[in-house]
Amino acid sequence: MDDLHKQLRSQAYNHEDELIDLRHTLHQHPETGWSEFQTSKTIRSQISEAGLGTPVQAAGTGFYLDIKGEHDGPVIAYRADLDALPIQDRKEKPYASRRTGFGHLCGHDVHSTVAYGIARLLNRHRHELHGTVRVFWQPAEEVTPSGAPLILKDKILDGIEAIYGIHCDPSLPSGSFSSRPGAETGSIDTFEVTVTAPSTSHSARPYEGKDTIWIANQIIQHFYQMIGRVTDVRKPAVISICTFHAGEAYNVIPHHASFGGTLRTMNEQLRQQLREYMSDITREIGRLNGVEARVRLGGGSPSVINNYQLYRFVRKLIGTQLGDEKFLDREQSIGAEDFAFYTERMPGLFLRVGTAHAPETSYPLHHSCFDVDERVIAPTSALMAYALIRHLHDRVLHMKPSLSSAESLLSEQ
């Protein structure tokens, strides 16, 4: 096992041009959630041409591929996401998006390419596998409802012992990795509030009717004042209003106004508390002003919870193979990730991969100029393939941890 990671890296670098070409193809043809038809076809064709087997379609545009080892053992999973964003790609690169108004500006093209690289390496090393790795490509990570619940509904992950996944991180230097045990991301809930009056009214005489915009504004102010007044300031939460729609004429107070946005927390109990408060305050302000006011809360996703043993396992593996300086402890992120639906059901680890090497690869996620240092694709494929092989060989979840608790880990740091 000592030389296996070096072998995997060498083999990954032998296919680096192929991996980068695949990433370029995906990047040029971005598709948003639930419509990743060409994206799916491109990757499945590449898998078949490489002789890795026939992927099984699942969860709409999603699919999976089982790499079965020559030794008996459990099944673990590796997840990649397929979808792009409805944002104009403004990079001046030959591989920039060819679809106006759409772009792979969150790195999912890289995630999908790394998953292909992993599958290719694992297939070559079936003799090292003590079990099976199910590599799957999930649709619709960026939208609500997202693809993870359908993956679970389709029973793709039934009987899975553990699950791994990665995400590009342009705030980290290329070649570095980051994670944390426990809550790694925030939960997310979308919401839409509607305020409806019996009729429109004249802008010169608002007292004769119901000013839906003024009432909606009252609800917005109560929402914004929740954080730190209704909630404990030591428990992170953020609410953002991102849309507001009302009226068409400058001199008519509309009979209908609506606004929407997202609620994000790091604590499930706080999440439920705020959801209830938003419903109550919307209803009561509507009643006080004699209008119908309703809030519709979307399903969203919970927090990603990284398994402690998997975190320690990968942290130690990276330190041993790449050097301790290549692993950076991560602070909690209030951003959301639907990988959380998997960590609700089974032990999982979500790992951030540094992709910043120069100013052009340091734009934040969802920026119209987002790009990555493509030199990370091959070594990341090798590292994750090595981690999956070692997980099955060492039976990580069945080993007694060398440290008895998270407190021990913290004291070590």
Structure described in brief:
This protein is of the alpha/beta class and 413 residues long.
Largest sheet: 8 strands, mixed
Strand content: 15-25%
Silhouette:
elongated
Instruction: Calculate Rg over CA atoms.
Output: 24 Å
Give the tally of β-strands: 16
Termini, distance in Å? 28 Å
Parts with pLDDT < 50 across at least 5 consecutive residues? 401-413
The named CATH superfamily of the largest domain: Zn peptidases
Features:
eight-stranded mixed β-sheet, single chain, alpha/beta, Alpha-Beta Plaits, 11 helices, disordered C terminus
Explain how this protein is built.
The structure is a single chain. This protein is 34% helix and 25% strand. The protein has helices at residues 4-14, 16-28, 37-49, 108-124, 148-153, 212-226, 268-289, 308-322, 340-343, 377-394, 406-412; strands spanning 56-58, 62-68, 71-81, 130-138, 160-173, 177-179, 182-183, 187-196, 201-202, 237-246, 252-253, 256-265, 292-297, 305-306, 327-329, 348-356. The model is unreliable at 401-413 (pLDDT under 50).
